Structures are given as structure tokens and as C-alpha cells.
Amino acid sequence: MKVVLIVLDSVGIGHAPDASAYGDEGAATLPHIGEAVGGLVLPTLQALGLGNIPALIPGSPAIPGIAPHRQPLAHYGVMIEKSQGKDTVTGHWEIVGLELIPGFHLFPPGPPSFPDELVRQFEERTGRGILGNKAASGTGIIDACGAQHMQEKKWIVYTSADSVFQIAAHEEVIPLPELYRACEIARELCDAYRVGRVIARPFIGQPGAFQRTENRRDYAFKPSEPTVLEKLTAAGHAVYAVGKIEDIVAHRGITESNHTGNNRDSQKAVEAFMKKPGDGLIFANFIDFDMIYGHRRDPQGYADSLKQTDDWLAGFIPTLAQDDVLILTADHGNDPTWKGTDHTRETVPLLLYRPGQTGISLGVRNGYYDVAQSIATLFGIDPMTRGVSFIS
Hints:
By secondary structure, the chain is an alpha/beta fold. The chain is 31% helix and 21% strand. It has 12 helices and 15 strands.
């Protein structure tokens, strides 16, 4: 048996009950993309039951173009995050069984955003000064500071509405190994502040035409308790990580990984891990929705990327064996029609496909960690401390 867990990064389905506390009441990633492009065309996801999900929460907007299916192929539900925050690490950690209350530390927008002592230690230990030191979009701050960075060879450091310390550097100015080493130093320094992630943001090009590369790396705060991934590997089951998963879980509970940088490569990696002998969990993050289209507020690009994944699913699903399981969900929202460029606090879809079964409603799940509990049930390991399994 292979269990394939795919996180469609940022594919939220409507604002969460507590969205007003985050300034996100009214955000709805999938419904608003559908409105912006004149209706989504996702026949595979529609057949699985994506269009059946909004009705589970009264008042949630429908997804234009994705009508409910009379006999969905997958079990369908909607999940409400219990942890505090709307960032990648928080969402993924809850999916693998953890809960963050209180949430990670958030830096002020600034400038300056970072405490003087943190900046002083970072500059001393890396041997370089910094530029930026404020909340900003990644592409925006590279455009604003890139030329000066190339001249002065200082780090570009910035934060966002998430708990992040991000370091940008031109690959031809500061070599990647040095950037990664600086991130390791920052990770150590940021632990005292309980920062969710340190992120390496390398880029190339010339002023006016900078481009970020796929050599990004994430350095996550270490979980304080075992995840379902660690419990699986301890019980002798393989865990295969695709995309940034290994970074998000601090490289714990992983048998083998393929650190892909885009959806197409991630899809190929999932297919390759499916050919591995024996059972196991394949845990993948499809990053393009969030990184390329959500943060850059591009509804059409987001819709096109959803269609590409829908087409891939149409070919992938028939390859599943009778005892395989496919779980599709998301970690947060990133409504490309919403204000700003940050994530949005939303509920997320849940689709569970098992060959030969007709889908039924899984209802409203209070906690993403129901996924971890269900994976524990599927593999027959000891239950997690949180969550209710949706596997009978």
C-alpha cells in the first residue's frame, strides 16, 4: 500500500471562522480565482468531489465552474486549522499531527523589522552587513535592493506577515554554499525568538531583470514532539518526501527525499516514488500555486497551474493499485484577488480517493491533524495524540 499525501500549496476554499483576526474575512482562494477567470475547468477534481465541499460550511461561496458531483469518486470534506498562524510550517505541522498555540513569533513590518541584537550577531557571524530589514514581497525587495547588493555584497534580509527571516543573495555575488551557511547561522540565532522559518532566496540576473531561482531552501524550527512521519519510520514504514517537505519537518522522519522546485518535477517525483517496492507514505508539496501565482497576485496563472495539476491527476489516478490511497489537501490560502501579497487564513479542501469506492462526505474536520490520525490508522501504528481518523 502506498499512501500519497499531496499538499496543494495555498489552495484554500474560503475564509476560516477566525479569519477576521488575521484581516482575512472574505478571502476565498478557489472561489475568487473562479470568478476572476470566468469559471475554473478542472474535470478531474470536480469528479473527485471538489465542488461538493463548499456546501459543508453554510454561507461558503461556491467555486465558479466546479459544480457538485452527484456521485463523487472521492470522500470529501473541509478542514479548519486549529493552530495560530497562516504560514507553511504551521499548516504542514498540523497536517502531520502537531498544534501550535501560541503560534510562531512575528516580526513587525519595520523598517527595522529585526531586533538590533539579532542583526548584530548575524552580521558578525556571517561577515557581511545587511540591506532591507523590513517586511516586503520577495521580488519587490530584490528589485529595490539588488543593485546595491551587487555593489556592496551585503545580504538582503526581510520578513513578511509570516514568521520568517528571509535572506536573498545573487548567486554570482555570494555563492550558494555561503548563502546556505548564513541561513544555518540565522536559524540558530532565530531559535531564541521562536521563528518558524529561515529561507534562502537566491536570485540571478541584472538590475531591472532579476529572477529568483529554484535553489531556495527552508530552515524550519524543530518540532517539539514526534510527527506521524517519525512514528511511521520508527515502525519500519518508508516515508518519501517531495519538494520542500524535508525542510518543513526539519529533515525528521524522512526515508528518502527529492527536493524538487516546481509542480511538474514534483509530479514526476511522486510517480518515481510510487515505483519503490513495499509500502510507504509519499508526502508531496506542490509549490507553484503559492510561490509563483498566489504571492504575485496572478489569478489566471493560478488557474492555469490548477488545470495542469488536474490534467496530471487524470493520468495518475488510474495507476493507483487497489489498496493505494490518495489524499489531497492544502496548508493555508493565498487568495490572488486579496489585498497585499501574503497568505490568507482559510479553510482547506480534503479529498480522499480509494480505488473502487464511491465518495461520501467527511464533513467539517476541526483540525488538520485529522490527516495524521487517519494515516496512523491506515498503517496500523499507534494513534496520534490529536485528531479524529476519517478512515473506517
